[in-house]
Write a structure and sequence with these properties.
Elements (H helix, E strand, L loop, with lengths): L1 E5 H12 L13 E7 L2 E7 L3 E7 L2 E4 L2 E6 H10 L6 E7 L2 E6 L2 E6 L16 E6 H11 L14 E6 L3 E7 L3 E8 L8 E6 H10 L6 E6 L3 E5 L3 E6 L8 H4 L6 E6 H12 L8 E7 L2 E7 L5 E7 L7 E6 H10 L4 E6 L6 E5 L2 E8 L5
Antiparallel strand pairs: 1-5, 1-7, 2-3, 2-6, 3-4, 4-17, 7-8, 8-9, 10-15, 11-12, 11-14, 12-13, 13-25, 15-16, 16-17, 18-23, 19-20, 19-22, 20-21, 23-24, 24-25
Amino acid sequence: MKITINRDSILKPLQVVSGVVEKRQSLPILSNVLLVVEDLKLTLTGTDLEVELTASTSDLQANGSGEITLPARKFMDICKSFPETSSTLDILIEENKAIIRSGKSRFTLTTLPATDFPSSEKVTAAREFIVTQATLKHLIEQTHFCMANQDVRYYLNGLLLEMNPTLIRAVATDGHRLALSEQKCEIKSGDSTQIIIPRKGIMELNRLLDDADTNCTVQVNPNYVRINLGNTIFTSKLIDGRFPDYERVIPKGGKKIVTANRELLRQGLLRASILSNEKYRGVRMNFSPNLLRATVNNPEQEEAIEEIDINYQDEELEIGFNVSYVVEALNSIKSDEVEITLMDPNSSCVITALGDDSSRYVVMPMRL
C-alpha cells in the first residue's frame, strides 16, 4: 500500500488524534495511531481505551487499500519537521515497516499490525440529538475547572451533562465548589438523561470544539458518548456512578446581595492572594455597606489587605473563602458586573453575572 499526501493534509488529523495518545503506555499498541485507507479516504484513530478520537481526510492519492499502525509521536514529529508549504509525503507500507519519503529525506518506522489495535466500540444510541459546537464549548468552558482531579469519589472526576427536552446543562464539582451552566436547546422529546464524561474526555473535547454555530451530533447510551464533529469523531467511556444531587448544594433564599465590578473585584482578590497560604489559599472577606475588605494572612505572619468598592446595603458580614475558587469563578464570567448572594458566615455563596443566572458558581466557606 502506498499513500501520497500533502504534509498539511495529514498533519491536521494526526494532531487531532495524537492528543489522546499517552507517551508511556503499558500496551505498546496504544502508543500507535491506526491508519486505514479505503475508497481514497484516510482515517486515523488514536485511543487510550477510555477516549477514542478519529479524524479523516480525502485529500490524498492511494495505491490500494489497507490498514496499519505507526508510532504516533514519531510519525507526527516527522510530518511536522517538513516545510509547511509544498511538502508532499510518500508513505509506503510493506510487511512490518513504513517508509516515509519527502524530497531527499527518508524515514523507516517499525509498524504494528492493525489487528492488535483495540477495536472501536459500536455505540448504539439510546438517545441522539443535534447541538451546535459553540453551545457545547460554552458549557464546558464555564464549568470544567470545577472538576475534581483523582478524587476517591470517582464520579467527581468528570463533568455531568444533563439533557432535558428544552435545555442542556453542565455541572462540575470537587466537593468544595460547584459550577453549573445551562443553555436552551431543542432536544427530541424524552426523559431527562444524565451522563458523566471523564476528565480527560472533557479536556480533549474542549480542545476539539470551536466557537462556530456548526452542528454536531451527540449519541448517548449507558456506557458511551459519541460526538460527530464532521471529519472528527470523539468517543468516550462514561463514568459509572451517581452524581451528587447538585440542586441541594445550591443555596436557596440568600437575601444578602452584593454587586460589584467584576474586574475590580478580580484584580483586588488576585493582589491579596499573593500572600495567601499556598495550600489553603484562605481570604477573609468582610462585607459592610458599599465596601469589601479582603484580608489574607500566612504562616510567616505576613498580611495583605484590599479594600474594594461594592454595592451592598445589608448588615456587616465576615466570611472566609478559598480565594482561588472565587477568582476562577470570576474568570469564567464575561459580564462587567457580578452578583454575589450570601446568607451567613457558615453558608455557601452563589456568584453569577448580574441579571443572568444561566451560569452559577457555588463556593463553600472555610474556617480561618
